[in-house]
Amino acid sequence: MESPPLPPQMQQEYARLAATIRDLADGRPMYYVANPGNLGDAIIKAGTEQFFRDFGIDARLVGYGDDGRIVLGDGGRILGEHELRDAVLLYGGGGGWCKLWGGGRRIVSELAPIFHHTVVLPSSYEITPDIPGVTFFARDRFESLQNLPSAQFCHDMGFYYRPARAGGAAPGGTGFCFRRDKESGFEKRWRIPLSNHDISWSGDYLSDVTPMFEYLSNFKTVHTDRLHVAIACSLLGVRVHLYPGAYFKNRAVFLTSIAPHFACARWRTSLPLSVAIRNSLQRRLGHRAAQ
């Protein structure tokens, strides 16, 4: 069973993004470099590729390695700079423009001078990049646009992915998918529940996202500080509680894109009392069993 269609307002924003890409490319060849990362970035990549298909944007996937080589994703052929001078680069959206993760800024700074023009797909901007020949898109209407006023807005590309809804038994229970890395905001405030599964590290940005959606669809409610876990749950219609991370990203995207369009999602700054008590009891029982 397919997910319901995107809300018309979101669809209009994606249509504007597609029109901007076509205008900037003006018939030139286009290449797509996905933002590297975990399964959250894989959802962005999956949504981006669906967006390309739906809007007839013929962008070829290429890889960019630490050795500086640009390699076609479907054949492994190394592309020379002479082939790219009249081409447009579409760089994948994500969180690579913050103080914790600066990969987006580094990669685009290295690649933009090679291409005729570069478009950075919807991202969060904690830092203010200054890279000539680049059109930036922001995925929130708050801090990202304040930090980079020249950016244009479009929703996170993960929202464009249309997951299949699993049939069978009705979902039940509560899932916890809090992050355990340096971007965690939850772990600094509370103890991570014992049953936590940071599913985003079950793969990387090139992985199939289907198992992640299948896992989340098993739950009636999910608590997370992973933005793309919250986006996945929103697309599935699973009740989700999204918590702050280490910077503004989660709240800004929640207010911009999730709250106005997905009734199953809630913003939280602390665990519900019943969940916190259950988590505390589980930890005590686990501690006693270990003694």
Key attributes of the depicted protein:
291 residues, alpha/beta, Rossmann fold, eight-stranded mixed β-sheet, four-stranded parallel β-sheet, 33% helix, disordered C terminus
Can you offer a commentary on this structure?
By secondary structure, this protein is of the alpha/beta class. It has 2 domains: 8-160, 3-Layer(aba) Sandwich (Rossmann fold); 174-290, no CATH class. The chain is 33% helix and 16% strand. The chain is built from 9 helices and 12 strands. Strands 4-3-2-1-5-6-7-8 form an 8-stranded mixed sheet, sandwiched between helices. A 4-stranded parallel sheet has the order 9-10-11-12, covered by helices on one side. α2 crosses α7. Residues 287-291 have low confidence and may be disordered.
The low-pLDDT segments are 287-291
CATH topology of the largest domain: Rossmann fold
**CATH class of the largest domain, anyone?**
Alpha Beta
Structural domain tally: 2
| Class of secondary structure makeup | alpha/beta
CATH architecture of the largest domain: 3-Layer(aba) Sandwich
Largest sheet: 8 strands, mixed
For the largest sheet, list the strands in their spatial order: 4-3-2-1-5-6-7-8
Q: Could you tell me the mean pLDDT?
A: 90
Shape: globular
The DSSP helix count reads 9
Estimated radius of gyration: 20 Å
Alpha-carbon distance between the two ends: 48 Å
SSE string, helix = H, strand = E? HEHEEEHEHEEHEEHEHEHEH
What is the share of helical residues?
25-40%
Q: Please indicate the percent range of residues in DSSP E strands (runs of 2 or more).
A: 15-25%
Counting DSSP E segments of at least 2 residues, the number of strands comes to 12
